[in-house]
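Changelog-adjacent note: as of this version, every example in the card shows the full chain rather than a window. The one below runs 178 residues end to end.
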Amino acid sequence: MRTLAHEVIRQAAEAAGLPADRVTGQSVKDNATLPRPRVEVQYLTETFARTGRVLDRRREVKAVPPVQRTRRELYTVRLPVVAHVLADDDTWLDGFCPAFVAALPRGLNDARGLWVAVRVQRAEYQGYAERRVGNAVVAPFIKRSRLFTIGFTWRVATEEEVRLLTDITITPHVGGGN
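Full-length structure tokens:
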């Protein structure tokens, strides 16, 4: 799921105007040698919720023997991902962030064909506090950033297969009592 989440964020950042190689994993600390603007991706703890509901039930009567397949959701899993957008320029950041959020899809199917919902949950602004020396404002290195928390909700599912009856023979019981 992390690979899918990283790919979705990379595609949205690229659609918003950031080169694809500027979307990376989280660095240990704010490294001044890494180029800005960039997006650092950090994965938070996944949470699992047991559900057990039926997602899909279909009959395949042309199969030999005919079967009924039932796809059952076992868990709903929520993976929060933090996309940290780092920039030196306020104007670029103010233009990039709405385009980035607009480029994120509502959801998509994963490799197993199950729906993964994508939702931006919150944005946190950083780097706007003034640094003062006496009465003067000092801003030698202006570092602006926004942290977007994006929720990816996916499923753990199983598929059950039940063979269907094709013919029934009823043998009548004649005579012999009640």
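Structural remarks: Residues 2-15 form the longest helix (14 residues).
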